[in-house]
Known about the structure:
15 helices; 26 strands; Ald_DH/histidinol_DH; six-stranded mixed β-sheet; seven-stranded mixed β-sheet; Aldehyde Dehydrogenase, Chain A, domain 2; Aldehyde Dehydrogenase, Chain A, domain 1; Aldehyde dehydrogenase-like protein; alpha/beta; binds nicotinamide-adenine-dinucleotide
Amino acid sequence: MAAQFDIKSYPGNIINGKFVSTQATRHSIDPATGEALYEVPVATKHALDAAVGHAREAFKTWSKTSFDERAKLVLRWADAIEANKDELGKLLTMEQGKPIDLANTEVGLTVQWLRTFATLELKDEVLDDNEERTIYLTRVPIGVCGAIVPWNWPVLLGLGKVGPALLTGNTLIMKPSPFTPYCDLKLGELAMGIFPPGVFQVLSGGDDLGPWMTEHPGIDMITFTGSIETGKRVAASCAKTLKRYVLELGGNDAAIVCEDVDISKCLPKITMMAFLNSGQICMCAKRIYVHEKIYDEFRDAMVEFTKNHVKTGGGFEPGVVVGPVQNDMQFKFVKDMYADIDKCGWTAALQGKARGDSKGYFIEPAIIDNPPDDSRIVVEEPFGPIVPLLKWSDEDEVIDRANGLKTGLGASVWAKDLERAERIARRLSAGSVWVNSHFDVAPNVPFGGHKESGSGVEWGIEGMKKFTNTTSLWVWKKVFA
Ligand code: NAD
């Protein structure tokens, strides 16, 4: 079953509070059926220039509004999203492929994220205060921001940029991934009657729109989520105009499982964290290091659990965990990784397979049994439902192996002995580290990567600060006294 939307073509990009249609249109594909979805706009460079002009104009007023006024509008937007949550959930499953429960969760989290952001006010700090002078550290908005969004969590990751940018007094132009433009346009539509024109605009476009944004002299900051490769291009492009940027990039998270765990209690969560969203999460457990004393038992239990509880299918089918991979490019990449199972001589504890019986991009989960540390499946981010289990015996050695890649997004340690777990956790080089969990996130907790997994953070007060410049304000009080 697929969701039905009775529309052939979306009315336009959201520019200065209005729909602006484009001459050219394009569409994405429902990854579960291979069918074309409705047409969406393709922004031209001229449309981007217009949007930037409106954003600069709107900034003059919006940057002077109080935090409370901005928060009031963000809360109204959150209410509007909540009122449309069912439609958005269906649209998300239709364009992204994720199971409907997960799509509804993403929309629900987004509402919660906006509501929490609306409580995170940045206040002046007083750095020095005496009879002669007061020195404040104030935070001022940067200007016009460009938000570049990936296809795996287009709603939460998109609005996780928009909320903080607007609340700190910036204006913003959002560019969805060409693979998933539908919900992001809808979110812009819901915002139309709420924010003043030009404050928040959405441009759907082709592959050239992102580079046009990073190069644009009228955009002051880029907030980007996507692959490491693209992140490097974004940074190089921003350097030409010295734009500020925040980069949230790829990860290859290690999960370290100690020998004292109760396997039946941690295995379901670890398995789900490997295969959730078909493995297409930056912070999935992508390398699972299991202590040699429990390795065989853990591996066999994981295979059994996956066979019995991790169902593959279309996002609207009940009980599905692994929906289709999101797009053809990713499907080919993951299939190539599967083809390496035999070619590279890896042992598959669970031999996943691509389904040939459907036009959708379906791949069943695979578990690789203790491949070498330098194998592709360990070193590369697969971004699909395939995960290696790796044996370890020595604590220092497993920490070195976990830290041994250029990525550093998330990592977890699983152990009954909390002192030991925390000792290991504190030595892991990653932006988020969990003990006895994986992939916990919250709107008031900063989120970002070490090493090539990113630059800067999003969310929480630290994430809000990234949308500001600091001004050190010196006030001498007695000069004319
Ligand atoms: P991607 O890098 O291909 O694309 C991301 C966005 O950048 C898209 O909107 C795309 O159109 C745009 N883009 C492409 N080329 C560009 C360029 N030269 N200049 C400017 N913009 C450009 O990434 P993706 O395939 O959409 O997403 C998957 C990747 O994102 C994975 O590596 C995943 O780990 C990572 N990711 C990271 C986080 C995080 O928070 N750290 C979260 C989700 C996904």
